[in-house]
Amino acid sequence: MKAHLKNYVTAAFLLAPAALTFTALPSTAVAQQALEVRSLEVTTDGAVAPGSRLRFRMEGTPRAEASVRVRGIRGNIALREVERGLYVGRYTVTSADRIEPGAPIRASLRNGNRVAVAEYNVPHDVRGAVAQAPAADEVRILRVNNWPAERMEPGAVLRFAVEGTPGARVWVDLPGIEQNVRLEEVRPGFYEGGYTLTRNDRLNPRAPAVAHMRIGDRASTMNIDRPLVLAAAPIEVPIEIVSHPNNGTIEGDVANVRGRTAPFARVEVRVTAVPPLLGQFTGAQQVFAQTLQADARGFFEFSFRSPLPVPGTKYDVHMLATKEDVRREANVVLYQRG
To answer: How many Cα atoms sit within 13 Å of 147 on the Cβ side?
Structure first.
């Protein structure tokens, strides 16, 4: 018979003469649209040894890609959906496999960029058995979920949910951002929270975020494998001056310039004045250097003052726009009008 325990995900074992059964209890989804591994059952046709077969039965969100990974077995074990939300698969243990007590087992569901993960352990008290719930005094992250932002720009929200040991302090470490994202316990063992990107953030979307759980000196961590930002078409970073044409003219000793690039891109601007005759003042001079932030429509503005607005003075305007890891340069020449 199978024992059903409350609190966070637990397991029950049935030891029979020729079979071992593990069951992960159903777990409430952390968000209505999130993927969910509701239950996992693994049976063997005998002791876990070369030649024995492991059979997997997973229930969860339908129309997803399901797999199980057991440390000590090379590669993932793919499951197929035989009924709506029911996934099955099997694996024959080989002499090369090393299934050790305490080794982690990961059950995964994937649908596009959405991923749900539930983790368990091979038990210490049954050599070669398949899985075990965490001990009562153990701090464990059982699963992590996140909702990627559509774009990496100010105002975008990254949301996270963690399931594990109740009563813990839980936070997410985002790569490239100093401030940790603290998650609140919304019900025993379930933690949720989010972070809104700002203009000053330098999030690295290619590095993994890490979920942390701690009670006193006991701690657990888990990498968040799902992307922080949805994969999108390559970022375009055009850059141009829209207030003046190339080789255009300016009047007076103050020039007001307006340009356009990608929304929220950083723009480094440098302006150098070159007199028509070097004898009029000492060579070329840098008259403006500043890093700007484009607005939500990609517009940016700057002004510079000429130290000597001599007719015919040339202004070399160099611009470098950067968004994420895409950089684009442009040069524009303006002349002082007589």
So the answer is: 17
The answer to whether the beta carbons of residues 165 and 189 sit under 8 Å apart is yes
Q: Name the DSSP letter for residue 307.
A: S
Q: In the prediction, which pLDDT does 176 show? A: 83
> Can you tell me whether residue 268 is helix, strand or coil?
strand
Phi-psi region of 51 (alpha: psi -120 to 50; beta: other; left: phi over 0): left
Structure tokens at 223: 């990498």
* Model pLDDT for residues 217-230, shown as the tens digit of each residue: 888 888 887 788 87
The secondary structure of 143-187, three-state, reads EEEEECECCCCCCCEEEEEEEECCCCEEEEECCCCCCCEEEEEEE
- The Cα 157–Cα 147 span in angstroms is 9
Which residues partner with 95 through β-bridges? none
Cα 81 to Cα 42, 66, 109, 126, 312, distances in angstroms: 16, 8, 11, 30, 75
CA 248 to chain centre: 45
Rounded CA separation 280/278 (Å): 5
49 φ, ψ (degrees, to nearest 5):
-155, 165
The 3-state DSSP class for residue 207 equals: coil
For 117-148, give the DSSP string. Answer: EEEEE--SSSTT---BPPPTT---EEEEEEE-
Token digits for 82?
Answer: 């035989």
Q: Which of 97-101, 166-170, 207-211, 265-269 has the lowest mean pLDDT?
A: 97-101
Q: Strand pairing partners for 290?
A: 269
DSSP 17: T
Of 298, 203, 285, 186, the closest CA to residue 242 belongs to: 298
Counting every residue, how long is the chain? Answer: 338
Could you tell me whether strands 37-44 and 77-83 are parallel, antiparallel, or unpaired per DSSP bridges?
A: unpaired
pLDDT interval class at 232 (50, 70, 90): low
Quick one: CA dihedral 167, 173, 178, 183, positive or negative?
A: negative
- Which residues contact residue 30 at a Cβ distance below 8 angstroms, ignoring those fewer than 6 apart? 145, 161, 163, 190, 192
